[in-house]
Specification:
The complex is a heterodimer of chains A (408) and B (363). Chain A has 408 residues and is of the alpha+beta class. Chain A has 17 helices and ten strands. The chains are: A alpha+beta (408), B mainly alpha (363). At the A-B interface, strand 1, helix 4, helix 5 and helix 7 of A face helix 6, helix 10 and helix 14 of B.
Amino acid sequence: MSTGNRKTVTPPRVTIPIGPQHPALKEPGMFKLTIEGERIVDAEVNIGYNHRGIEKLAESKTHLQVLYLAERICGICSATHNGNYAQAVEMAAEVEIPERAKFIRTLTWELERIHSHILWLGVAFHEVGFDTAFMYSWRDREIVMDMLEDLSGNRVNYSMNTIGGVRRNVSEELRSSLLTRLDKLEERMIYYRDVAIQEKTFWNRVDGVGVLETSVARATGAVGPTARGSNVPVDVRFNDPTQAYVHLRDSGEFEMILSERCDVAGRAIVRVVETIESIKMCRWLLQNLPDGPIRERVRPRVQPNEVLARYEAPRGEVVHYLVTNGTDKPERWKVRAPTHANWVSMRHTLIGNYLADAPIILAAIDPCFSCTDRVTIVDTDDNLIESVPLDIMRVRANKWYRQNGGKF
Amino acid sequence: MMQTLQFLDILIWGLWVLLFPGIFFITFLALLWEWIDRKVYARLQNRIGPLHTGWQGILQPLMDFLKLLGKEDLTPKRADKRSFSAVPVIMLVLSITLCMFIPIVDMDPSLPGIQGILSFEGDLILLLFLSSMLVAVIMLAGYFSSNPFGQVGSARTGMLLISFEIPLIAAIVTPAILTGSLRISTIMEGLKTLNIPYALLLILPLVIFLISIQAELERIPFDVSHAETEIVHGWQVEFSGKKLALIHMAEDIMLVFAAGITTSLFLGGPYLLEFIPLDVFSVTFATLMQTSWIGWVYYTLVFMFKSIIVVMILSNMRTAFARWRIDQIVHYGWKFMVPLALVNLLLVQLAIVYIFPILGVIV
C-alpha cells in the first residue's frame, strides 16, 4: 500500500461543556471544550453568569455605603475591593491617611493574600484529586482566618477600612499573638511548599501543563501570579506601591516572586512562595507598626475628580476607576478585577492539553467569577431582562455615546 | 425419604447462598468495609468521617444506600433504556458471584481445607474472566448513557483495563505457580504448608496485586474514570436513584472481593493461629476448628481481620496520592507495572526450578 492511500484515523470530536454548573467550578462559568480523544483542540470561554449590577447600584449610594457594597464584590478578596475603594476616595478627596492606618490596612491586605493563596492551594490539590493535602491546607488556613477575625472581627468581609483610615486598632496583646501565629503559619507553608514540589503525583499533574509563554502572557495582558508564573514582572506592590507598601519596598527585604516555568507548576510555586513572603511582610508590618491615630476625618462630599486606584490583589492587579462629582455619591465607578485580565489567555493555555488538565488549568488563574461579571442589561421600565451579545452591545453603546456627546 | 433429604439439602444450600457466607454476609461486609474505608480515609485527612448514624456512624453506608434507593430514578432520553437499566443489576450480580468464590468457611466437609460456596478446579480463571467482564460492563455503561462525560469515562476505563489487567493476572498467577493448582481453595491450602523462602516470593506479587486491584477498583490515584472535578463521575454521571444505589453497592462488594481474594491468595486465608509452629496450635487447634462449629466463627473472624488490614492498606493508598492523568497511568502501567509483573514471574520460575533446588530448599 502506498503512503498516499494511508488513512489517518482521528478520534471523533466531542464537545464537552464545563459549566455553567460543574463540580470543578466554584462559581458559574461556561467553558466549551472540543476534544479529540483526550486532547483539547478548541476552547471557548464564556462568562457572564454571575452579574449583579453592583457598579450601577453604587451610583445611588454614598461613598461610605459603597465601601460595604464593594466588599461584597468578592467573598475571598473582600478587603481588596473595600480597601481599594477607600484608597480611591481618599485619592479623589486628596487626603493623606495616618501612617498607622496605612500599616493596618496593608496588614489586612497581606493577611487576606495569605488566606487566599492557601485557599487556592487547597483548591488546586482538590482539582488534581489530592484531597488529603486539600483538607490539610484548609485546616491550616483556619489559623489565618482566626487571625483576621481577631484583627477585624469578621472571618470574611472584614469591613476593616473606612474612608480616611481603618476602623479597628491593633492592641499590644493582639500584636504579639499575631506574631506567634505567623511563625506557626510560616512553618506550615514551608511544609506545603515541599509537599507541592516533592509529591510526585501532584507534581506530574502540574509540570509542563497549561503553558503560557512569556510573550503570550505579555501580549494578552495577564496579571498577578499568572503573569509572574510566566516570568512577567508585574506586581503593583513593587511597581507602583501605595499605603505601607512604599515602606515595605524601601526596606529592601522583600522581592517580587517570579518563576520562569510558564506552566501551572510555575503559578503554583509563585503562589506558595509569595505566601511565605507575605508572612514575612506581615511580620515586618507588625514589628514596625508606628504609633498614632488610625483615622483621618474626610468630608463626605468629595470634590469633582477622576482617579485610578491600583492594588495588587491576591489574583493580580485590581483597578478601581472612580469619578466623583462634588456630591457624596460616586458619578461613575468601574472595577477591573484581575480575573478579567487573565481570561484572555485562557484559550491559549487550554488548547493542546489533556481534558484531565482542564480543571487545574482553569483553576490556575484562580478565577473569581463574581469579581468579573459586571455587564447585563435590565430594563427597569418594563421589567425586561435581556442578555445581549457583546457586538450588539458595542453598537448600542456607540449609538448612545453619539447621541449623548460622549458624556457619562 | 430420599425426597425429603434432597429438599433439606437444597434448603440448607439456599440458606448458605442467601445468608451466611452468601449474599447477606457479603452485603454486610460491603457496608462495613465502606465504613472502615471512609473512616480511615477521613481520619488520615484530619477529618472525623461518618459520625451520627449508629455507633461512630457505622450505619452511615446503610443509610446512604437506603436513601439512594428512595431517590428519583431518571433515565436520559437519548440513552439505550433497556441496556442502561440492566447495567447496575449485571454489575451487582457479577460482583456477588465473584465473592461466592472466596473461601471463608468450610462449605464441603468431604474435601480438606476451606472452600467457597462455588469451588471447582480452575475457578481462578473464571474469577479473572468475571472481573474483566465487570470492567467491560462499566465501559458499556458509559456508552449506553449517551453522555459525553460518560463516554470519556468509558474510554478511560478501557485504557485503565488494558494497562492494569496484565499485572493483575501475572500477580495472581504466582501463588498458583507456587502451589501448582488453579483452584483457590487448593492454593490456599498449599500456601499454608509453604516453606518460608517460598512464601517470601509472594511479597512482590502482593505489592503488584494491591496496586493493580486499586486500579481495578478505580480508586485514587487511579480514579480517572470517575474523576469528579474533570468529568463529573464519568460513566456514573447519568445514573441516579436505585440504579446508583446498586452501582455503589456493587463497588463496595468489589472491595470485599478485592480484600478477600488478597487474603485468600497472598495472606494465607482464614488461618491465623495455625501458623504458630507448636503442636497445640498447628495440630490440636487446627483439627478442632476444622471439625466443630467454633471453626465457622473463628474462620469468619480471622477472614474479617485480615480483610480489614487489606482495606486499610487500600485506604492508605487512596490518601497518599493525587489522581494520575490517564496518559500517565498508561505510561506507568506499560513501562513499569507490566515489566515488573513479567520479571516477577520469571523470578518465581527461576527460583523454583533452579535456585531453590541448588540451595536445597524444598516445598
